[in-house]
Design a protein that fits this description.
The protein is of the alpha/beta class and 210 residues long. The protein is 48% helix and 17% strand. The strands form 2 sheets. Strands 2-3-1-4-8 form a 5-stranded parallel β-sheet, sandwiched between helices. It has a 3-stranded antiparallel β-sheet with strand order 6-5-7. The radius of gyration is 16 Å and the shape is globular. The structure holds adenosine monophosphate (AMP).
Length: 210
């Protein structure tokens, strides 16, 4: 049986970090809709041109575009042992669409206070080449400004600027947090305290899926 997971939680909760670690450990495919959109923006594809200003403002890409993207991605051959969906679904219509084209094992809800989310997002750095994540204080690279894994340049995401951070947290509260109740009703939600070290959070997720 494949393990199909959804990582839910506010921006900054560490979903991407834990998804990368878990996907390697369990041979799952890590699918981050945010990474896919950013890749398209960077390469100026038609999709990228369409969503560039939406991402920069911290708004959500329309559901129909996002659903189609994920549905197509899940049809690819590498999705054998299962997947970790990181940042999808983010709205009730997306959750309903996902039910139509795939079946999810668990929804892992990364719980983090708004203050902690702001603190994490404000110091976040990403490698512009490989997408690896760092934090100025909590997870600094060995050499300032340089990615440990590929030597790429570390940058601040446009949507990690203060205005966009506030917008993203507001949009999360309004449009994504209702999914907590939605999945609780379906008995699919498993809560994880995301305010701990990445090793501890990873262990909690492993305990849930074992
Ligand atoms: P993330 O890297 O998950 O924080 O996503 C970055 C941005 O990509 C979000 O702020 C949205 O603009 C867009 N995005 C990612 N996933 C979704 C989604 N499931 N629905 C709508 N927009 C999304």
């Amino acid at each position: 049986m494949p393990i199909n997971l959804v990582f839910l939680g506010p921006p900054g909760a560490g979903k991407g970090t834990i998804a990368s670690l878990l996907s390697v450990k369990k041979h799952l495919v890590h699918i981050s809709t945010g990474d896919i959109f950013r890749y398209n923006v960077q390469h100026e594809t038609p999709l990228g041109l369409r969503v560039k200003s939406i991402l920069a403002a911290g708004e959500y890409v329309p559901d129909d575009i996002t659903n189609q993207l994920v549905q197509n991605r899940l049809k690819e051959d590498d999705v054998v042992a299962g997947y970790v969906l990181d940042g999808y679904p983010r709205t009730i219509p997306q959750a309903q669409a996902l039910e139509d084209f795939s079946s999810v094992s668990f929804i892992i809800n990364f719980q983090l206070s708004e203050e902690e989310a702001v603190a994490r997002l404000s110091g976040r750095l990403v490698c512009e080449r490989c997408g690896a994540g760092y934090h100025i204080k909590n997870m600094p690279p060995k050499t300032q400004g340089i990615c440990d894994s590929c030597g790429g340049k570390l940058v601040t995401r446009v949507d990690d600027q203060p205005e966009a951070i506030k917008k993203r947290l507001d949009v999360y509260q309004e449009r994504t947090s209702p999914l907590i109740e939605y999945y609780t009703q379906k008995n699919m939600l498993r809560n994880v305290d995301a305010g701990r070290t990445k090793e501890e959070v990873l262990q909690s997720v492993l305990d849930i899926i074992s």
